[in-house]
Design a protein that fits this description.
The chain is of the alpha+beta class and 296 residues long. The protein has helices at residues 47-57, 83-99, 108-112, 129-177, 179-201, 207-221, 224-242, 248-268, 272-292, and strands at residues 7-14, 19-28, 33-38, 61-71, 77-81, 118-122. It folds into 3 domains: 7-74 and 127-150, Ribosomal Protein S5, domain 2 (2-Layer Sandwich); 77-122, no CATH class; 151-292. The protein has a 4-stranded mixed β-sheet with strand order 1-2-4-3. Strands 5-6 form a two-stranded antiparallel ribbon.
Length: 296
C-alpha cells in the first residue's frame, strides 16, 4: 500500500466545562517514526497517551503534534508562603532595617515585594480521567484527518510510481529485444579493433585466438544477467505498490537495486543504442527513488 508521509490534520473540542482544546497534527518524511508533542505543563500526564496513539496510527514520518488549551472557567487558587525563602530573607531584612534605624516591622506590601515569597497555584490544574479520555478522542480525530490526507497523497504517488515502473519494464524489454543485435555489433567492433591493432603493430595474430578473445570481451559486455535481475526488481516493486502493507522501505531498497543494475549496464555499454536506453532507464529509476522517499 502506498501512503505518503506528508499530511495535516486538525480537531478541536471541549474536554469539560473548564477546558477547550485545539489539536494540530502535521507530518513530513523521515526514515523512522519520530513524534514531537507540544502540550501545556499541566497536561504532561497525557503526553504518553498522545505518543501511543501516534504509534498506533503511523509507522514512519516526522510527526509534530501541537495541543492548545483554552480555559473556559476560572480555577480556584491556593496561595501559600514559601517558608524556605521567608526563613532566609525576613531575618536579613529585619537586621538591615534595625541597622538603618527603620525599625523591624514590615507591612504586607513590603513582604509582597520579596520575589517568590508567595506562591499561587491553581487548585484544579491536573486533568481528570474523563478529561484525558476526551483529549484522546480529539487527538484521534486530528490523526485520522492527517492519515486521510496521507492516503490521498499516497494515491498520487502510487499512480506516478506505477507509470514509471511500466516505463522501466518497456525499456527493459526493448533492451532484451535488441540484445542479439547489440552482441553482433560488439563482436564486429571488437574484431575490427583487434585487426587494426595487429596491423599497426605489424604482428600476425592467430585468427582462432582473436575469435576466442573477442567472444570473451563480448560476454563481459553482455547485459543479460542485469536485465533479468532488473525485471525481477520491477516485478517485486509492482507487487509492493499494489499490496496492503507499508511499502516505503521495500521500494527504497528495490529502487537502489534497480539503479545498481542500470549503472552496471551503463558501465558495460559500448553500443550507442544501449547507452541511450540505459540513460532513459536511469532517469526513470532516479525519479522513482525521489518519490519513494515520501512513502511510508
Amino acid at each position: 500500500m502506498i501512503t505518503s508521509m506528508t499530511g495535516f490534520g486538525r480537531a478541536a473540542g471541549a474536554l469539560s466545562a473548564r477546558y477547550f482544546v485545539a489539536v494540530t497534527a502535521k507530518s513530513v518524511n523521515h526514515r523512522f517514526l519520530e513524534t514531537s508533542v507540544r502540550i501545556p505543563d499541566y497536561l504532561w500526564e497525557a503526553e504518553a497517551t498522545v505518543r501511543a496513539l501516534t504509534s498506533e496510527t503511523f509507522a514512519r514520518g516526522k510527526v509534530d503534534i501541537s495541543i492548545r488549551v483554552q480555559r473556559t472557567a476560572q480555577p480556584d487558587y491556593n496561595v501559600r508562603i514559601n517558608t524556605q525563602i521567608a526563613n532566609t530573607v525576613v531575618p536579613q531584612l529585619r537586621a538591615i532595617a534595625e541597622e538603618l534605624g527603620l525599625g523591624s516591622t514590615f507591612s504586607g506590601s513590603d513582604l509582597l515585594r520579596v520575589p517568590d515569597l508567595l506562591q499561587v497555584e491553581p487548585i484544579d490544574a491536573e486533568i481528570t480521567e474523563e478529561e484525558r479520555e476526551s483529549l484522546a478522542i480529539i487527538v484521534r480525530d486530528a490523526l485520522a484527518q492527517m492519515k486521510a490526507m496521507r492516503v490521498r497523497e499516497g494515491e498520487s504517488l502510487r499512480t506516478d510510481i506505477t507509470t514509471r515502473l511500466q516505463t522501466i519494464r518497456e525499456l527493459q524489454q526493448r533492451l532484451a529485444a535488441h540484445r542479439d543485435e547489440i552482441r553482433d555489433e560488439l563482436l564486429a567492433s571488437y574484431q575490427q579493433r583487434v585487426q587494426e591493432i595487429a596491423k599497426v603493430a605489424g604482428v600476425d595474430v592467430n585468427q582462432d585466438r582473436i575469435a576466442q578473445e573477442v567472444v570473451i570481451m563480448v560476454e563481459k559486455g553482455d547485459v543479460a544477467e542485469e536485465l533479468t535481475r532488473l525485471a525481477h526488481h520491477v516485478e517485486q516493486a509492482e507487487k509492493a505498490v499494489s499490496g496492503g502493507e507499508a511499502a516505503g522501505k521495500k521500494l527504497d531498497f528495490l529502487s537502489q537495486e534497480m539503479l545498481r543494475e542500470v549503472n552496471t549496464m551503463g558501465s558495460k555499454s559500448r553500443s550507442a543504442a544501449l547507452r541511450t536506453l540505459v540513460v532513459e532507464l536511469k532517469t526513470e529509476v532516479e525519479r522513482i527513488r525521489e518519490q519513494v522517499q515520501n512513502v511510508e
